[in-house]
Amino acid sequence: MLLKTLFMISITCFLWWRKNIILILLSMEMILTILFISISSMTYMNLSLNSMFMLIMMVVGSSVGISLMVAISRLQNSINSSTIWTLTFVKNYYNNRPNPLHP
Length: 103
Known about the structure:
GO molecular function: NADH dehydrogenase (ubiquinone) activity
Membrane topology: Multi-pass membrane protein
Organism: Tetragnatha moua
Shape: flat
Number of domains: 1
Low-confidence stretches: none
Largest sheet: none
Keywords: Membrane, Mitochondrion, NAD, Translocase, Transmembrane, Transmembrane helix
Catalytic activity: a ubiquinone + NADH + 5 H(+)(in) = a ubiquinol + NAD(+) + 4 H(+)(out)
């Protein structure tokens, strides 16, 4: 019951703080930890397999976190995200503009 409540709180926080990447990542880390605890308590795995499963879950969580950070930085035009914005979109903008000299 406690894990279910914590999971619902983490999902709510994950959806509520969608503009703040640090809180999103913390909520996602809490979700992954709760999922790991619930899966490891239901099945009795040995320690090495348990550790490998935790490592895989954390790598997947990090990949999703980096994807979220890039997606949020594309949506916000702040000073902090201007570097990522220019690295990804400036070249595409200048390459896709019509050339006024060639109709």
